[in-house]
Amino acid sequence: MKPKQESTLAWYVVHTRPKCEHIAASLMAGLEGVETYCPRIRFQKNTRRGKVWFVEALFPSYFFARFVPLESLRAVNYSQNVIKVVDFGDTLTPVPDAAIEELKAEMKDVEICEVEVGVKVGDTVELTEGPMRGMKGIVNAMLTGVERVRILLEFLGRENAVEVPLSKILTEHQPRSVLAAK
């Protein structure tokens, strides 16, 4: 059964293949009568190989497209990397314009918003280098100077305070949760 088609211009949610949101959105933007919005976040994360910049979709495997379904649904559904336009019970459900405007305002009217995933006292972190690599501890203090933190590690049956550079730890914070907390 095919989704019921509307004849008014509205925003809809488009489901894509994983990690292909921005590609599908940019290809779809070339279609006549179709506008796309694919908010993404850029963040730096400490990994086992050092600090690395990542760019990911704010909504993994989804983006927004504005079109008239009666005219463009087929072209949108068959665009490269698109799985389908999200529907509920074979009915396309438009996203209110106000919701998209609010999202754009939160993203500061840019498609890629930079998010800082920081570390604070009380966070659980993992060491990425040295003889204690892989051990987890709790941040006890943020130290001034060369971006260092004091971590409490349980080692040999007791807690030990260790000072390490911020670049040598992994945090459990996720960039999407940091963005939501703002």
From TrEMBL:
Top-level taxon of the source organism: Bacteria
UniProt organism field: Prosthecobacter vanneervenii
Pfam families: NusG
NusG-like N-terminal domain segment(s): 10-103
Family annotation (InterPro entries): NGN-like_dom, NGN_dom_sf, NusG-like, Translation_prot_SH3-like_sf
One Gene Ontology term, aspect cellular component: cytosol
Entry keyword set: Transcription, Transcription antitermination, Transcription regulation
Stated name of the protein: Transcription antitermination factor NusG
Alphabetical GO biological process terms: DNA-templated transcription elongation; transcription antitermination
